[in-house]
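The passage that follows is intended for readers who have already worked through the single-chain material. We present the inputs for a multi-component assembly, then the predicted structure in tokenized form, and finally a short commentary. You are encouraged to pause after the input and sketch how you expect the pieces to fit together before reading on.
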Amino acid sequence: MSRNTKLKQLAAACALGAATSLAAVQANAGELSLLTWVSYADESFTADWQEATGCELKPTLVGSNDEIIAKIAAGDRYDLVSPSVDTTTILWKLGKIAPIDTGKLEHFQNLYENLQNNPGITLEDGTVIAQPNAWGSIPMMYRTDKVDEELDSIAVIFDEKYAGRISLWDDKSNIYPVARYLFGTDVNVFDLSDEQLAEVQQKLIEQKKLLRTYWSQAGDHINLAANGEIWISNTWGGYQVAELQAKGIPMVEYLPKELADGWMDGWQITTDAQDMECVYQWLNFAASPEGQCGMSLFSGFSAASPLVESCMSEEEFTGRHQHQPEYIDSLVLWREPARPAKMIEVWNAVKAAE
Amino acid sequence: MSRRLRTALDFFAVFSLPALWWGGIVLGSLGVMASMSFWTQEFPTFRPDFQFGNYEELLTNNQYVVVIARSVRIALMSCLFSFLIGFPLVYFIVFKVESRAVKLLLYMGMLIPLWVSYVLRSYTWKTILGTEGVLNSALLWLGIVDEPVMFFLYNQYAMVITIGYICMPLMMLPIYSSLDKIPRSLIEASRDLGANSFHTFLNVTLRLAIPGIIAGWTLAFCLAVGDFVSPILVGGPSANMIANVVLTQYGMALNWPLGAAITVVLLVIFVILLSASNQAERVGKVNIE
Amino acid sequence: MALVSTMTGVSVPGARSILPERRKKPTSATTSFVMILACCSLVFLYLPLIVLMVFSFNTNDLTVFPLTGFTFSWYEKAFQNAFMMEALFNSIVVAFAAVIIANAVGIPTAFALMRWDFPGKVALQRIVLMPISLPALTLGICLLNYFTFWGVSLGLHTIMIGHGTLMSSIVVANLFARLTYFDRRIEEASADLGATPLETFWYVTLPNIRTTLIGSCMIILIVSFDELALTYFINGNTNTLPMYIWSMMRQGITPEINAIGSCVIFASMLIVGVSIYILSRKPEIR
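Having made your guess, compare it with the prediction:
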């Protein structure tokens, strides 16, 4: 090989490198990058839509709302994100979220009214910053073949009997049920005093010696339970337990008598979103009966639209409380804490402790 | 053109791109990070500032002290673990293997795991040590235990094994080169002078290997103390190491200034450690020529 | 310096120890004791890799003994995964970009440090070797701050810059080790015969450091291909293969990881084998 050809090859390689990197900088038209939970854009129900519209979904999966904030704050570019309603407003204040033009939404009006009016969805001035997608509870779950008693309380996570068999979600929301356990169900868990937070922190640190490990994503959580590592844990209502039961693991859910947290997630458009055509097509699909059915049947979460009646059995429909949307008010529905940074600090202090 | 000027011109021609890179990117990013460590967090953002609050937080808040102590402890234990496992192998290859081919083969065998995916090496230990993992199921299957052993995984011992495993090649390489440099004649001389093999090992071999041992411990320690993968995969609830805390500050805690402060402290510690170790290596070196 | 070159240098066992021993010693009790210990170490070193490979062919989707049957399905599944293939492609692009950047930056740096005296030389030497002597995480954080400071959005290009920086250090460290025993008289001879400095570099210097450069390129390919701690901070929403594997681990997708992991291990071993072969094949002295 002559030196000249070598040089040419080198130049070609450089050009190729530069070209690919440039191509990567410019987002492909028709590609939607989503920052979302495991079950909101699964191929099983979005493949046809992607085929039909030519919009290609590229989901990045997260394990907590704080992770969503972190990624957006770090400047990662996504077109759509699906945080819970305690986080939608934080992202909005960060200036990373574009308001939703409800005129372009086909199904927004069909969604449950109380979900539409949630302060994390529609701001006081009427600006819509998110489109409701799903909702549910944060119940507890346990293996009936390993736990002999019938559980009904959060107190079980402090029970020495189950040392090394308990797991908790790696999320600041663990503070809420423990606060209710300590201070009664009337306490406003989203605005705890420093003393109360210190007490919760202490309790959660004491609890660590009973803990096997924290879980962060649903798939990992399912594996932990399926591999016999954990018997008792908090969970995302509907999803993990159904998957585990399908694997033949006798896992059941229960709502603790200290009340359970409730959550609702909505799709938000980021200010980085490029292909608005696809963005709104996706929003309209996600809220359509078809999209809602796909999501809800896949995940076990409650749908944001009552129209899922068309695709669900009576049992599935009532099991998800779709006939009584006010059920969400019996849960302690997440909202932006008075001092989110303080909450996160407490949770990190718990995780750092010995 | 004067010779001096020409040399200077040559220098700039050769060095302008690298200068831009090292100055513009490496130095620049160090500077930005150092200055950000004085900023103030205002969740969910932060604003430019000049205050020492982040450093104060680091020194006074017990959670950071606990994590730093744990990181150092686990890193040292991991180093000890990989030293104890690695040293016999290195010693064997250098002194006991006669054939050149076998020696080369073993040398490569000890080197290759260094280049095998870092994450995967950590991850396999999770599958090995689990309650229904490879080790437990093998023990059950062979009838050695009746119940799965739980304490293999999700504790600090699991981390020591995993991190120690990851560090092994880095521990072994410098020790290998220092053992390899020891002239056989010295060892034989020691024997001829009546020292038994244990004394020879202690007073000659080990003594001459000190620079390599120091280098190995330093390399392994730097890798171990900066690990964030093993704590997440095998460490269980009380596993956070310093790198995990940095990760959290840049992640969900959204406190980049504090994260920057921790990194600055880490950098300073590393630089001191590396120069100290270089110094120690030089002092520990015995002139054998 | 010694630290860094041991870390990056794929050297072969020193010539001295390879010379045949004068007399064959009988196997003593200590020798067999050391041998047993050494075997245990080797088993420990390779057990995890073997476990990973064995279970990548096992039909059970839990990594549990006894083995249930032989299958290629995890490999099929892994290679049908479009996101994984995209991540793989990204990793390849990044690795080659890193090779180009690292050589463009690293070779002149090594020569400048070796051949010229200038103010701040010692400081520069420290800076240049910092990226490899410190945990990659610190470089990642520095760069994340820096890119955010300038408003650079994160993606493939930032990963390339990050890897390029890390790998430049590797090139410098390796070249440094080589240049310390480089015979400059051959360059002087070339200049005396009327060659321009560029011609001298291209026809005389470069061929003499070629093996070192090939070695560094191999190391760069492997390191870049496996890099996680640095990439973690500067990848934006672009995945490289290790980042994708990491996200799969977080999601608990086990058997597919075993399959991809086995491929990665195999590829790394292949490259290491080839590079050791190339480096040990012929001495560089002409």
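Commentary: Residues 1-24 of chain C have pLDDT under 50 and may be disordered. The two ends of chain C are 27 Å apart (CA to CA). How closely did your sketch match?
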